[in-house]
Amino acid sequence: MRKIIIFLLLIYNLSSAQTYDVLFIGNSYIYYNDLPDMLSKISTSLGDSIFFDQYTPGGYSLYAHSQDQLTIDKINQQNWDYVVLQDQSQRPSLSPAYVSTAVFPYAEQLVDLIYQNYNCSEPLFYMTWGRKNGDQTNCVNYPPVCTYLGMQERLRHSYVSMGFSNNATISPVGIAFKNCIAFDSTIELYNNDNSHPSVHGSYLAACVFYSSIFKKPSIGALYIPNAISSSDALFLQQIASSTVLDSISSWNIFNANFSYVDNGDSISFINSSSNFENCIWDFGDGNFSSLENPSHHYLNSGIYNIKLIVYTNDWCLMDVLEEEITITISSIEENNNTSQKKNKYLDFFGRITDSKSKGLKFFINSEGKAVKKFIFE
After folding, report:
1. Distance (Å, rounded) from C-alpha 305 to C-alpha 291?
2. Mean pLDDT value of segment 121-148
3. Pick from 228, 251, 274: which residue ends a domain?
4. pTM of the predicted model, to two decimals?
């Protein structure tokens, strides 16, 4: 019997439609059941749009793609929003020594080609799944892949490493397979060869890609392949959504996020964004900061709209998170702050000084405006 699953998802803005151009670079794990077309139809049913192209010869590896002019031509074909990169199903699961020489360098080479074509493109690594009975071909020489779970753990480690080392996003399809099997093993995710995906497996993968790209749940998608019941489709949508959205930072998805601590006389902000390069804080009172984890002192009580803006890919991509916070300051402190604000004098070098010393002064009035004054003896 299927267990009842309750997911606590963050609140996402489902009203704003988004459109992305996506290139799929991989092999048969993509073209089986036409995964890109599934993703496009799921997106359309949820009010978003995916326009895609693909180059997916059977059995191709990242190494083979890095040497193939057709792959390079596809990358250079246009300014892609996302370029999906998927290695041959076994290679990233093999020993760390093998992966470091036969996988990682070619992942980096392809990422470089993507950025050279268009630095706003986001590389998206397609974390695949362990084979249903493990990799019996390589089991003798590398025992960790003898079982499904052992192979899956090696794939997870390799794809996460590729994502973080290349400042790229990971689409955790393999983890969604693992979660689905743990909750309901009666849903068959594999083709008869126990390697390639069934229609259910490809649909789960497409839902994972939707959440990885749009940062929204696929729950409620109206597109469902004929071979999948509506109850199974909803279950797969839930698995995909929770796998991605409950662990956004684990998959290095570009995303703005923060928390804060009230220290009594100041607020400490903690930037928990992922896959970002630069940030700007708007404290809602006319003050800003570019520090990653700033502290700020508010002079007056009130409700302030805090805005964190994060950037990546050389300031090309931006994400914003806003939150209102309530600041309560004692009347004595507030009066002192107001008084200090009205009587503030700065010297030529911006240092606070008194109102009677001679020389050039800047008087800061109650509205925070500077008035230049000369004080004579």
Report:
1. 18
2. 97
3. 251
4. 0.84
